[in-house]
Amino acid sequence: MVGTLRTTPYKWVVRLGNAYVEIFRNVPLIVQMFLWFFVVPEFLPKALGDWIKQMPPPWSQYFPAVMCLGLFTSVRVAEQVKAGIQSLSRGQGMAGTALGLTLGQTYRFVLLPMAFRIVLPPLTSEFMNVIKNSSVALTIGLLELTGRARAMQEFSFKVFEAFAAATVIYLLTNLVVVFAMRALEKKVRVPGLISASPSAGGH
Q1: Predicted pLDDT at 194
Q2: How far apart are CA 151 and CA 140, in angstroms?
Q3: CA 70 and chain centroid, separation
Q4: Mean pLDDT of residues grouped by 10 in the chain (203 residues)?
Q5: Residue of 86, 106, 87 lying closest to 96 (CA atoms)
Q6: Which end of the chain is more exposed for a tag (fewer CB within 10 A), N or C?
Q7: Structural domains present in the chain
Q8: Contact 112, 105 (CB under 8 A)
Q9: Is the peptide bond preceding residue 58 cis, with omega within 30 degrees of 0?
């Protein structure tokens, strides 16, 4: 949504979208994780802030981690969606206008379906980054995969086995994402726009 709004002709909407992106893009992920966990509850109404802080583990760490990773990733996706829309020829938007479509309909039926296919490959990287960046949640006490590996090695003193298992799980999870996204790219590919494989480029 943010990436799409940043390509509209409404300057104030574009400025708001740019401000949103710059705020979350220029602050390190680990700092944002601390802000969501330690600072944000203090600025909420007292009853809500106290309720969040008193939630039993792992929920008190889980929700701030999800919000942090979601917003941090959203600005990266917004940049890719914006680039995908702007990579389309101006003629496509003009064709929608010539057909009598409103701006919203032009985006919905003309621009976004094509831009979606263009941004699928970089979105694959973002899905993988979310999985890998989840390890930062360890800093606020959330026992995600890396945290569990550390707890395992501290309990059993088997450092190699614990982190080897974590590495394999990360690898397998990301491979599932890669193959699923490749299948999706192949399914929605428009001949002549994006090639699913090098050999498909000439078709």
Answers
A1: 52
A2: 15
A3: 6
A4: 92 94 91 92 88 85 92 93 91 86 91 90 89 89 83 80 89 92 86 50 44
A5: 106
A6: C
A7: 2-200 (1.10.3720.10)
A8: no
A9: yes
The first and second tokens of residue 110, run together, are: 């003309």
User: Cα separation of 137 and 76, whole Å?
Assistant: 19
Residue 93's φ and ψ, nearest 5 degrees, are: -65, -40
Cβ density class 112-121: b for 16+ within 10 Å, e for less: bebbebbbbe
Residue that is written with structure tokens 């949103």 in the block: 20
Tell which phi-psi region holds residue 202, choosing left (phi > 0), alpha (psi between -120 and 50) or beta.
alpha
Which distant-in-sequence residues (6+ apart) come within 8 Å of 92 by Cβ? 110, 111, 114
The predicted structure's pLDDT at residue 57: 80
Q: Are 166 and 135 in contact, with CB atoms under 8 Å apart?
A: no
Long-range CB contact pairs, 75-78, < 8 A, 24+: 75/2, 75/20, 75/21, 75/24, 75/25, 76/25, 76/126, 76/129, 77/3, 77/123, 77/126, 78/2, 78/3, 78/6, 78/17, 78/20, 78/21
Residue 193 has a pLDDT of 62
pLDDT on residue 200 = 41
The reported pLDDT for the residue numbered 168 is 93
> How far apart are alpha carbons 202 and 16 in whole angstroms?
42
**Which of 86, 73, 64, 88 is closest to 4 using CA atoms?**
86
Per-residue confidence (pLDDT) for residue 22, from 0 to 100: 92
Please give the pLDDT value at position 29: 92
